[in-house]
């Protein structure tokens, strides 16, 4: 269905811009691998690989829209590693999220719930868990032929995602004004609901719900476009502000 879901964290503010968020590596270990002066061309092959990798291989960024991916592309750095080089370990925690551009990398984990060793090729994302849990028991090294990675600094990723969450929250507030189901709620109650808002995007003809297979505790509201509900020979159209699934 190619679903995109973005969680709102309420009225969190994000005043930083892409240019002001670019943060140089903070350690000698990271700095020695950085390709200085790199800037991603939004019309080039690197951007296409970057975009595809984020949307298909990242649990933090798989929900992003095109404008947000472009914003992150402006912040992307390029790191080059030789065979056996260490990207990060428990003792050398990473400050970036990485997306493999070329070559291969080996992730080793001490967590019982994860494979002990995984080989990561182009398009694979790693470092997300380390961004959330700096002491995560895992390490990553470049493979036998070395490789290169796009890198996004932790602070930049967090700020961009917070900015997106703020945008989703505002969109939810605007939409709530047109939702008949919420007409008896006051503004504070609507804001409370919008703090838990998820934004889903679907391609033309994409399936949203299957009979007896949708979450019973989820309410859907059309933000834009049109949604068609079919039951046998009967069909119903839902437009912006209409709700279903309740």
Please characterize this protein's 3D structure.
The chain is α+β, with helices and mostly antiparallel strands. The chain has seven helices and twelve strands. It has helices spanning 18-21, 28-31, 45-57, 66-75, 128-132, 154-176, 187-194; strands at residues 4-7, 77-81, 86-88, 96-109, 117-120, 125-126, 138-153, 198-201, 220-221, 227-231, 234-238, 243-244. Strands 2, 3, 4, 5, 6 and 7 form a six-stranded antiparallel β-sheet that branches. A two-stranded antiparallel sheet has the order 1-8. α4 (66-75) packs antiparallel against α6. The protein is elongated, with a radius of gyration of 21 Å.
Shape: elongated
The overall average pLDDT, rounded, is: 78
Note the main sheet.
Answer: 6 strands, antiparallel
Structural class: alpha+beta
Helix content: 25-40%
Number of helices: 7
Number of strands: 12
**Rounded to an integer, what's the Rg over CA atoms?**
21 Å
Summarize, please.
This protein has 246 residues and is an alpha+beta fold. 27% of the residues lie in helices and 27% in strands.
In terms of topology, how is this protein built?
Blueprint: E1 4-7, H1 18-21, H2 28-31, H3 45-57, H4 66-75, E2 77-81, E3 86-88, E4 96-109, E5 117-120, E6 125-126, H5 128-132, E7 138-153, H6 154-176, H7 187-194, E8 198-201, E9 220-221, E10 227-231, E11 234-238, E12 243-244
Antiparallel strand pairs: 1-8, 2-7, 3-7, 4-5, 4-6, 4-7, 9-12, 10-11
Helix pairs in contact: 4-6
């Amino acid at each position: 269905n190619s679903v995109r879901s973005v969680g709102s964290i309420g009225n969190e503010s994000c005043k930083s811009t892409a240019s002001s968020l670019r943060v140089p590596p903070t350690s000698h270990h990271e700095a020695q691998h950085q390709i200085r002066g790199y800037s991603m061309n939004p019309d080039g092959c690197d951007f296409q690989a970057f975009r595809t990798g984020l949307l298909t291989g990242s649990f933090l960024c798989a929900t992003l829209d095109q404008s947000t991916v472009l914003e992150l592309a402006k912040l992307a750095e390029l790191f080059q590693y030789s065979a056996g080089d260490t990207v990060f370990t428990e003792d050398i925690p990473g400050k970036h999220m990485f997306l493999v551009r070329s070559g291969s990398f080996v992730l080793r984990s001490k967590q019982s719930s994860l494979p002990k060793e995984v080989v990561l090729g182009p398009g694979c994302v790693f470092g997300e868990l380390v961004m959330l849990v700096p002491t995560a028991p895992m390490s990553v090294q470049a493979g036998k032929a070395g490789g290169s990675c796009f890198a996004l600094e932790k602070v930049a990723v967090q700020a961009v995602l917070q900015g997106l969450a703020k945008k989703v929250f505002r969109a939810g507030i605007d939409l709530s004004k047109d939702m008949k189901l919420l007409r008896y709620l006051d503004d504070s109650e609507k804001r409370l609901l919008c703090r838990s808002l998820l934004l889903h995007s679907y391609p033309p003809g994409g399936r949203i719900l299957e009979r007896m297979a949708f979450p019973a505790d989820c309410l859907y509201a059309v933000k834009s476009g049109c949604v068609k509900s079919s039951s046998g020979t009967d069909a119903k159209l839902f437009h912006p502000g209409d709700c279903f699934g309740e």
